[in-house]
């Protein structure tokens, strides 16, 4: 009797265990249905939801499941992350941009700037937000010295520049650099910062900074609104590309007008000789 009772108890425990497992599986299926209603939505709705996030989030969605991947990587989704005027921008490219999908195009524009407008401007996208970035080449800048500019500026080519040529300062003189860009080509509701991109020639015979500080004056003008600042430049001699911030500005919805960016030396003769200017970089400020 004891043996029979023992066997009976074991059979009951097995039945309970099996029912528990089946119940657990059923519960998981029910929970999956409750907590994953997005799976029941049409692909176009899922695409719209993903497009309201960010490029980085869209990439994360594509890793969650095979079903999500097809929607998250689709052209309909990534078209929302590209600028609305992307076709017009690409039509101005010096070399054709070849891509296999909208996502591939987005990635390429984030990883490699595209030269446009006969190579006087470069265009790229910010990888985290998809906002537009531009660099104005030295050729498109208004660069003047305090003396005759033709005698103290010369054009050279460097392999690490994105543009065909850059400008070199060959004598001790004060520079005045002005760049202009239309606010309409920039992304709306975005705070931008502008930077002078420069380096010093390694073979310069005058690399030692002057004994007194190098003082630069910069300004940003949008229509009639102007902001200015003065600062002392770093005494280090950059032989790689460095940046000097000119200023920052915010692009409102419906913002129209020309943006004028200026950097002028007021003391110290900016690195005296051997200064090389690649351009002015304008990009979203995080």
UniProtKB/TrEMBL annotation:
Xref: PROSITE patterns: FBOX (PS50181)
Region (Disordered): 1-30
Residues covered by the F-box domain: 35-81
Protein name per Swiss-Prot or TrEMBL: F-box family protein
Membrane-spanning segments: none
Protein's organism: Rhynchospora pubera
PANTHER family in UniProt: F-BOX DOMAIN-CONTAINING PROTEIN, F-BOX PROTEIN PP2-B12-RELATED
Organism superkingdom: Eukaryota
Database matches in InterPro entries: F-box-like_dom_sf, F-box_dom, PP2-like
Any Pfam family hit: PP2
